[in-house]
Amino acid sequence: MYTASGTLDKEQLVVQYAPLVKRIAYHLMAKLPASVQVEDIIQNGMMGLLDAINRYEEGLGAQFETYAVQRIRGSMLDGLRENDWLPRSLRRDMRRIEAAVHQLEQQKGRHPTETELAESLGVPLAEYQHMLQEARGYQLVYFEDFSGDGEEDYLERHITLEGNDPLTLLLDSNMRDVLIKSIDDLPEREKTVMGLYYEQDMNLREIGEVLGVSESRVCQLHSQAIARLRSRISGAMQVAPKAKGEGRGRGRRPAAS
């Protein structure tokens, strides 16, 4: 990895780690809407790789790769933050789906099918699946989830509860248990997609090959699984903190003994 003069051969490092940049980019694409071009993600990632090469001063090897991954992902995310990559209309559509999931689960006592969800939303199945496809990039938790339209901020509402800073609320053991059970309760194919993507680090194309379906179908299954999980977690976020704060109020003094 060094030139004849004893300096790092940066061109050779770029060639060696370019496939890593592409793999990270394609893995990240599952979290991004269809409007985002993978070439743009790769370009930002290559800038991160060059930055890592220029900054790294230790001996090369596994440690450099770990460092490079952080710089590559960071550069990709920085590029995405500069653009409004998930329109509000898509978030509204997915929240409509979440509401339909919650309502049908309450009515039927089980996970609703895609057909049932489409009927509940009043759209054809193909249009519902297109909504899922377009909503690629919808995440499990957004910062905006902690504030409502015209309502008191969620974190402000609970920040005075003893020990309940934002991180504590997110890492609450009860919330973790809800998430684990919600994942375990997912329909089998959606649970498989989540496991292959998040545990096996496979991209959408690779998962499609395992399941024998198209990459776009995997994207739909992923988006639908996220909607189901968000529906469960949103319910837990509304109930659990309220229960913890029962009997307490902002500025309320404890009763005298």
Automatic annotation (TrEMBL):
DNA-binding region: 204-223
Annotated region (Sigma-70 factor domain-3), positions in chain: 93-163
InterPro entries, A to Z: RNA_pol_sigma-70_dom, RNA_pol_sigma70, RNA_pol_sigma70_r2, RNA_pol_sigma70_r3, RNA_pol_sigma70_r4, RNA_pol_sigma_FliA_WhiG, RNA_pol_sigma_r2, RNA_pol_sigma_r3/r4-like
Alphabetical keyword list: Cytoplasm, DNA-binding, Sigma factor, Transcription, Transcription regulation
Cross-referenced PROSITE patterns: SIGMA70_1, SIGMA70_2
Disordered, as annotated region: 238-257
Chain positions covered by the region annotation Sigma-70 factor domain-4: 182-230
Keyword Ribonucleoprotein annotated: no
Motif placement: Interaction with polymerase core subunit RpoC: 40-43
Keyword Transcription among UniProt keywords: yes
Region (Sigma-70 factor domain-2): 13-85
One Pfam family from the record: Sigma70_r2
GO terms, molecular function: DNA binding; DNA-directed RNA polymerase activity; sigma factor activity
SUPFAM superfamilies reported for this sequence: Sigma2 domain of RNA polymerase sigma factors, Sigma3 and sigma4 domains of RNA polymerase sigma factors
Domain RNA polymerase sigma-70 residues, every copy: 40-53, 203-229
One of the GO BP terms on file: DNA-templated transcription initiation
One GO location term (cellular component): cytoplasm
Principal cellular location given in the protein's record: cytoplasm
Location of this chain's protein in the cell: Cytoplasm
Family statement: Belongs to the sigma-70 factor family. FliA subfamily.
Free-text function comment from the UniProt entry: Sigma factors are initiation factors that promote the attachment of RNA polymerase to specific initiation sites and are then released. This sigma factor controls the expression of flagella-related genes.
NCBIfam families tied to this protein: FliA_WhiG (TIGR02479), PRK06986.1 (NF005413), sigma70-ECF (TIGR02937)
HAMAP family: Sigma70_FliA
Designated name of the protein: RNA polymerase sigma factor FliA
Lineage: Bacteria, Pseudomonadati, Pseudomonadota, Betaproteobacteria, Rhodocyclales
Annotated gene: fliA
